[in-house]
Amino acid sequence: MQTKVALLNAHNTLNYGTMMMCENVITHLGQQDKRPSFVVLADDLDLVRSRLQQATGQDCIEVRNRRRGVLPRWFPHSVRRVLDDGVFRYVNVMRSVEGCRVVVILGGDDLSQDYGTLRLMDMFLRLLSMRVARKKVVLLSQTIGPFTGIGRALAPFVLNQMQFVFHRGPRSAKYAQEELKCRSPQEVAADLAFLPLARESERGFIGELGLDARGYMVFVPSRLSRSYCADSSKYMDGLVTLARGFLDLADAHSCKVVVLPHVLRDPNDRHLVRSICDRLDSPHTLGLQQELLPWQARVILGGSRLNLSQRMHSAISSIQQGVPVVALSYSAKYKDVIGSYLGLEDLVVESDPYAFGDTVQRTLEKVAEVSNQIDAWRSYIAKALSAVPDDAARQLDHLAALLAES
Prior knowledge:
By secondary structure, this protein is α/β, with parallel strands linked by helices.
């Protein structure tokens, strides 16, 4: 009988970064002699199943409703929703992974307080519910912390219940081991998105958009306005200024600017892309609105001369493709993954939410600097990437060995 492994935090396949990690787990483990079957929890079951099958070519994917209620159908819907999402929330989590021996928590920065303490507490309780259900829980490609208050108090207890923790940067590992005193098995490994996607060699997609390789530059904006700027109206004005300066630089190199949304749900960056392009009103700007598969987004990023990104995994895809990228950061994860792990600190610009105008100017200066040294940066990136694919795959090899034991 096939071993079942549950993949959590993969429900939003319209977040290209999330889906990249999920499909790389499926593709890599699907090549093992004793390949497991995969259980992915989602809300839109048909969409998630279709996108993952298209991207991976694998047919061993079961998509379950991540809100499997415990109450019978004859309860009024409104009552069921309140009780299932509240009182029975973590019972539902345990029911959703029935039959799975191993539960994989796909990475990111969910185990931090960047998105609020309540969200962090919910994540902690989900992890503990898996352990109550006697599952082996493995955390892949994680940025852990920093925490304050109750988050700081609970984090060591929760993390010590995990089967294994893979950090995607040395700062995260040092924080967990030295400050939190976590004793669960831990290692530093590259973000899963540094692995090649199954279909990324299909380069013809660029031509279908009317683009020539190295004949354009890509700007990836983010709707996480509160993370970047305390004033939402100033944020939008700042992004337009940033995009206009990026367009001027592109014009100087006879390039177009592609404005690419990298998250199309929760939140949807397409509206932001449309607004930016409307205000630029330039024939040399292409704002993409269609739903892409992650490999298509990566092909676009990989064909560019230079990229500017407010989304972590679009920056990772750029680097993975050997394309210099200036990453506009709102959290510690950028400095850890791109800076500490890869040694490319100079590609990260940290945002000041109370002086976003200054952030915009610093970013444009950095973009111009990188553009003037584009060949040198390509060389730096190639050297930084030399051991990264093996480092990323190591955590999946560990997972495969764990599944073989289960």
